[in-house]
Design a protein that fits this description.
Layout (H helix, E strand, L loop, with lengths): L4 E5 L4 H13 L4 E6 L8 E3 L9 H5 L4 E4 L7 H8 L3 E4 L4 H13 L7 E4 L3 H4 L1 H8 L8 E8 L7 H10 L4 E5 L2 E5 L6 E5 L4 E7 L4 H8 L4 E8 L2 H12 L2 H4 L2 H8 L8 E8 L4 E8 L3 H17 L6 E4 L6 H9 L4 E6 L1
Helix pairs in contact: 1-12, 6-13, 7-11
Protein name: Saccharopine dehydrogenase
Organism: Flavobacterium piscisymbiosum
InterPro entries: NAD(P)-bd_dom_sf
């Protein structure tokens, strides 16, 4: 068995570091490299700047088998490089607009693809699709899927999600109702939702996550929505006021980045998925005690392990398409800092 060489681009960032930590603990025989713009201390630290393809040579020199992208690559340079050089690729960072562009680009190159290209940019490392499959294996029965997110401002947060909100809070995005795209905005259309794990009733507001696109356009679920609340009721209602009074529109981007960019020392994160068929409503709730970075990283590690098993043939995938949903559920359920609850 050859040692697998894995490069985590953005490996010195918040989620990248956790991915490397969990990978190393679970797979001591993997050969792990961290890619970032700055030079590091060891020969496992590679200089890879996604905006400068000249820096990609080290990927070939180190015989990398799999590229894990956890940093923003606006022009999809790494994706194109992976396709050209027949390297396995997984991306966990793209917000919805960027994901659709990258997916179209991969499909346009479909004839050339001789490796596994996996898009894992759904919520928390792309595990929602697997949880939906686990709860209702017959996808044609599902009429509606709603995701509710409890997001703590005390959680450790990477820059990318804060910057995405800052850049897009004034722009409409798409949710789906009976397969009709509907344009909505963040922090509007509030409703009350009763969260598990002792959180209780909260106002929840629209949020754009890639699962909207994945569950409707790829999985053909007719009605899909995502709503979120902050751990602070005050912050949640403030965001709602700012949006309805159009205060975000008059703020500078820098000010919006400061507003969304607060990051604490760590806190829990929770999300709940409601799946409706004609017969019944099912609900699966997930709590990550160590917060978002840990959950996203662990999900990504599950995808990496699956990609490096010899069973997956070349092609373009979303992360839930490479697994049996039962395996994902069981892996999450046995992880020490993750709790799952099912209500049928």
């Amino acid at each position: 068995m050859m040692r697998k060489n894995i490069l985590v681009i953005g490996g010195t960032g918040l989620v990248g570091k956790v991915i490397l930590r969990i990978l190393e603990a679970r797979n001591p025989d993997f050969n792990l490299f961290a890619g970032s713009r700055q030079s590091g201390k060891t020969n496992k630290d590679l200089i890879v700047d996604v905006t400068n393809p000249k820096t990609f040579e080290c990927i070939l020199q180190n015989k990398i088998d799999l590229i894990v992208l956890c940093t923003k690559d606006s022009n999809n340079e790494i994706l194109q490089f992976a396709i050209q050089n027949k390297l396995d690729y997984i991306d966990i960072t793209k917000p919805t607009p960027d994901l659709t562009i990258a997916y179209d680009l991969a499909r346009a190159n479909n004839q050339k693809i001789n490796s596994r290209i996996v898009f894992s940019s759904g919520w928390m490392g792309g595990i929602v699709g697997s949880l939906v499959d686990f709860m209702e294996p017959d996808r044609h029965k599902i009429q509606e899927t709603n995701i509710f997110i409890y997001y703590s401002v005390k959680d450790l947060a990477g820059k990318s999600s804060a910057n995405f909100l800052a850049e897009n809070v004034c722009k409409p995005f798409i949710v789906y109702k009976n397969n009709q795209p509907q344009h909505v905005k963040h922090f509007l259309n509030s409703e009350k939702f009763n969260f598990s794990f002792g959180i209780g009733k909260r106002q929840v507001y629209n949020l754009d996550v890639p699962d909207l696109f994945i569950l409707n356009q790829i999985e053909k679920i007719p009605t899909v929505s995502v709503k979120m609340t902050y751990n602070s009721k005050f912050v949640t209602s403030l965001m709602g006021c700012f949006q309805s009074l159009k205060i975000f529109n008059i703020m500078f981007l820098k000010e919006r980045q400061l507003l969304f960019g607060s990051s604490g020392n760590g806190d829990q994160t929770i999300f709940e998925v409601i799946i409706k068929t004609q017969q019944k409503t099912k609900r699966i709730s997930l709590q990550s005690i160590k917060g978002q970075a840990e959950l996203t990283a662990f999900s990504t590690v599950l995808h990496i392990e699956k990609m490096l098993s010899e069973t997956l043939s070349g092609g373009i995938y979303f992360s839930h398409q490479i697994h049996s949903s039962k395996e994902v559920y069981e892996a999450l359920n046995t992880y020490s800092t993750i709790n799952l609850k099912i209500n049928e």
